[in-house]
Amino acid sequence: QGGLKQCLAEFRQQLAWVERLDVTLGPVVDPVSQSASNTDAIDPENDFQREMSFYRQAQAAVLEALPRLHKLQIPTRRPDDYFAEMAKSDQQMQKIRQKLKSKQEAMERSEKAKQLRAMRKYGKKVQTEILQRRQKEKKNMLNAVKRYQKGLSDKLDFLDDEQTSSQGNKKGNANQRTKKGPNAKRRYKNQKFGFGGKKKGSKWNTKESFNDVSSFQAKVAHNKGPGKARKGGKKALNKRPGKRARQKMKNRAR
């Protein structure tokens, strides 16, 4: 025991408080009960009570140490350009970001799939309602036809309804076609080739065209116009001279 005290005296250094910054105090006063919490009344197995005791003891140390630091003119706030190394490396933080990003994307995909299922369900419901309505109308019409065939009814209102509905559909389709008009491709072809019409027999002569001879040109018709060849047309220009003519041409050249 004497040796331990001797070693403790050697380790102990008489330094100023600013070099040690040690504060030993009890918990701060509880604002609810207006009294300091009794350490004996704290259950060490109760996590909430134990953590609150540590928290209030840290509060008491801060309330005691800050005024002393201000009195010694020691800054207690971190400067704006202070750089502190993170406890985790950049690689670890990158893995965490990727994990969070993958979770977010999975949640978005799940939400989109849920919306798509809801839209399909709604579309299927609407389609089922339309089919049921059509089947009901068909059934009512068949019942009306049977009643008319059996002589139970002499009214043909169901045919009028069917005819008016079909005419309404045709009018609606015609209105849609007239409102819509030809597309750009059709308009371009109409502008380039015309708007159609009679093709077969368009070049046939009529009585008026047969009697009209104002555009007749005899020189053109009989191949006697300027620049035309004599008898034989173009072939006459390219015809080879005879043997006697060729001989005369050779003699002249000598």
Which SSEs are present, and which pair or pack?
Elements: H1 2-11, H2 17-20, E1 29-30, E2 35-36, H3 47-71, H4 90-149, H5 157-180, H6 184-193, H7 207-211, H8 218-221, H9 234-237, H10 243-253
Antiparallel strand pairs: 1-2
Brief account:
Helix content is about 60%, strand content about 0%. The chain is an all-alpha fold. A two-stranded antiparallel sheet has the order 1-2.
Report on the structure:
- The chain is mainly alpha-helical and 254 residues long.
- It has a domain of 72 residues.
- It is 62% helix and 2% strand.
- The protein is built from 10 helices and 2 strands.
- It has a two-stranded antiparallel sheet.
- Strand 1 and strand 2 form a beta hairpin.
- The radius of gyration is 55 Å and the shape is elongated.
- It starts with a helix and ends with a helix.
- It comes from Neodrepanis coruscans (wattled asity).
- Keywords: Coiled coil, Nucleus, Ribosome biogenesis.
Shape: elongated
**What is the strand tally?**
2
Which strand order spans the largest sheet, edge to edge or round the barrel? Answer: 1-2
Q: What is the number of helices?
A: 10
**Oligomeric category:** single chain
**Mean pLDDT metric:** 78
Sketch the topology as an H/E string, one letter per element.
HHEEHHHHHHHH
**Roughly what fraction of the amino acids lie in strands?**
under 5%
Could you say which structural class the secondary elements and strand pairing correspond to? mainly alpha
Poorly predicted runs of 5 or more residues: none
The main β sheet shows up as: 2 strands, antiparallel
